[in-house]
Amino acid sequence: MSSGDESSLRGQQDRALELLRRKDLVGAECAIAQAMAHSADDPWNHYLFGRLCDEQGRWDEALNALQIAARSLSDDYWDLHERLGRLMSAAGRWREAVEELTKAIGAARHDKPWVRQLRAQAFARLGLADEALEDMLQAHRLYAGYSFRKADQAREELVQIYRQLLELARAAWRRGQTEQALCLLRALAAREGLANETGCLLEIQLLLAKGLHVQGQFDEAAAAYQRAYGLEKERRKKREILVNLGLCHLRESRVT
């Protein structure tokens, strides 16, 4: 490519980027077409085309173009990886979404709360409770620094993700996947404030106690039963909890 051609290509790319920023999609499409005419293989052209398709709602084309761009461009372009992560989330490709959003977080000059939100949603879909809740808590903290409205929305989404993770724990318990259920329940129980806010603390403690009991972890199970006993209001259910608590103590004494 001659220096004149390269100068013209960079000029068209800069113009396309500026038009995209101004939401002039018709003008941007023309500028990108001219840049593509100079070099159809240029990764920056693929990024610009992917960004255009994303703005136009042509998400399959956007995903394909941005993936081509990502193969050649460095990981420093946080916007590229944020878009890829968002599009992969929309396609249900949760693990790939986490990978791309992690790159976006690492490349961004400042922590972006909406990227944390996106990654939290992907983590939650994968059943990674600690990671999902930590990302949403961080998003809430970041929003609280400049927008009460967005902070409130993030808090609402945090509660929704908490409930979603609890439903995953219930489903794992019903399927007999005790280890997976316990992993989720431990993460949920560690955020007692959220458990209280959702009104699920008693259920979480009971499920945790039962799971630990089944796994033969009697000491931890007894502690969870004791917490559940303190929360339960109904007399009959309190007696059931006491029976299970006594069984845990009995079995623990036999083990020791």
Keywords:
256 residues, mainly alpha
Q: What's this model, at a glance?
A:
This protein is an all-alpha fold and 256 residues long. The protein has helices spanning 3-21, 25-38, 43-56, 59-72, 78-90, 94-107, 113-125, 129-144, 148-174, 178-190, 192-198, 201-214, 218-231, 235-255.
Number of helices: 14
Estimate the strand proportion: under 5%
In terms of structural class, how would the helical and strand content be classed? mainly alpha
- Overall outline: elongated
Helix content: over 70%
Task: Determine the mean pLDDT.
Answer: 92
Query: Major β-sheet, in short?
Result: none
Give the termini separation.
79 Å
- Measured on Cα atoms, how large is the radius of gyration? 25 Å
Q: How many DSSP E strands?
A: 0
**Unreliable segments of 5+ consecutive residues:** none
What is the element string, with H for helices and E for strands?
A: HHHHHHHHHHHHHH
Describe the fold and architecture.
There is one protein chain. The model has no long low-confidence stretch (mean pLDDT 92). 41% of the residues are buried. The protein has helices spanning 3-21, 25-38, 43-56, 59-72, 78-90, 94-107, 113-125, 129-144, 148-174, 178-190, 192-198, 201-214, 218-231, 235-255. The protein is built from 14 helices and no strands. It starts with a helix and ends with a helix. 83% of the residues lie in helices and 0% in strands. By secondary structure, it is mainly alpha-helical.
